[in-house]
TrEMBL record:
It comes from the Eukaryota. Homodimer. Keywords: Lignin biosynthesis, Metal-binding, NADP, Oxidoreductase, Zinc. SUPFAM superfamilies: GroES-like (SSF50129), NAD(P)-binding Rossmann-fold domains (SSF51735). Belongs to the zinc-containing alcohol dehydrogenase family. It comes from Eucalyptus grandis. Pathway: Aromatic compound metabolism; phenylpropanoid biosynthesis. This is Enoyl reductase (ER) domain-containing protein.
Length: 360
């Protein structure tokens, strides 16, 4: 008989889990493995709520195995390290993002692109090497191979830096890879949510001119006054859009609902790059002709490798970049999920895990 999640490992753990497709989260006892020789164990202090947590707890992608303890924007303080660990010591501030394993030997892994490894292991809801299911950061403790642990620089506040581990790297990586990181370039950012607001902050720190493109005109003040965007376009305002045609070097598109690509392609200069980081469930319409006329491209990008995630965090520390967050107690998490489904948050919920997760 298979052991229960509560007894399969020697270390007692507790958190909040969803048990079925209602996605309702409630207290949950489980267990974590003992610190292995290459492992870092840490006390979870904060965990961001990513939109994919919401999809996952409701099994909207059809891959969820219940019970699921979500959370892949996890930060905390190291409590124990394995005998072979070299990068971390007890007391260090650390984080774990979307993955806790990869094959470490394929072409992707060798190029520090563990995020594209076919055997990449997600931080929660995935089968680990020992056959047990991984559990995320809506919980009291976390254990991970040190390779997948990120060092959080001292000057970064831990609560605001949690979302960097997914939202941050998701937009930082394409800016670097697609060469949209040169000062003076003009970047469009479509959608001003968790991902979009991080894209604005990183691009501004890199010295770019940033234009936010949104369906809601009421986000203009926030985008320009608060986040420091240079301009704001209402995507439904054809006059405004016409005026901005052919002005952008690239666009980071964070929208995960079906939307029109044609107007975005039109906004770009020759050689412009439209990069998708949101994932609409249905196919988008893509006409080839507008791409030919201007040698434009549409690409994609998914999170980032560990080396680049560390680079992103260090960059964030240098420029004091953190997410704008609403810090919430664990028992608010179901309400937070409901609000998140209505995009009612500026811009990321972060759970104050250590101060609000009560043992039971
Ligand atoms: Zn995420
Ligand atoms: Zn690999």
């Amino acid at each position: 008989m298979a052991m229960s999640t509560e007894n399969e490992h020697p270390v007692k753990a507790f958190g909040w889990a969803a048990r079925d497709t209602t996605g309702h989260l409630s207290p949950f006892r489980f267990s974590r493995r003992a610190t292995g020789e290459n492992d870092v164990t840490f006390k979870v202090l904060y965990c961001g709520i990513c939109h994919s947590d919401l999809h996952n707890i409701k099994n909207e992608w059809g891959i969820t195995s219940y019970p699921v303890v979500p959370g892949h924007e996890i930060v905390g303080m190291v409590t124990e390290v394995g005998t072979k660990v070299t990068k971390f010591k007890v007391g260090d501030k650390v984080g774990v993002g979307c993955m806790v394993g990869s094959c470490r030997s394929c072409a992707n892994c060798k190029e520090d692109l563990e995020n594209y490894c076919p055997k990449m292991i997600l931080t929660y809801g995935a089968k680990y090497y020992d056959g047990t299911i991984t559990h995320g950061g809506y919980s009291d403790i976390m254990v991970s191979d040190e390779h997948f642990v990120i060092k959080i620089p001292d000057n970064l506040p831990l609560d605001g830096s949690a979302p960097l581990l997914c939202a941050g790297i998701t937009v930082y990586s394409p800016l670097k890879y697609y060469g949209l990181d040169k000062a003076g370039m003009h970047l469009g950012v479509v959608g001003l949510g968790g991902l979009g607001h991080m894209a604005v902050k990183f691009a501004k720190a890199m010295g770019l001119k940033v234009t936010v493109i949104s369906t809601s005109p009421n986000k203009k003040k926030e985008a320009t006054n608060h986040l420091g965007a240079d301009a704001f376009l209402v995507s439904r305002n054809t006059e405004e859009m016409e005026l901005a045609m052919g002005t952008m070097d690239g666009i980071i598109d964070t929208v995960s609902a079906v939307h029109a690509l044609l107007p975005l392609i039109g906004l770009m200069k020759t050689n412009g790059k439209l990069v998708m980081v949101g994932a609409p469930e249905k196919p988008l319409e893509l006409l080839a002709f507008p791409l030919l006329m201007g040698r434009k491209m549409v690409g994609g990008s998914g999170i980032g490798g560990i080396k680049e995630t560390q680079e992103m965090i260090d960059f964030a520390a240098k420029y004091n970049i953190v997410a704008d967050i609403e810090l919430i107690p664990m028992d608010y998490v179901n309400t937070a999920m409901e609000r998140l489904s209505k995009a009612d948050v500026k811009y990321r919920f972060v759970i104050d895990v250590a101060n609000s997760l009560k043992p039971f």
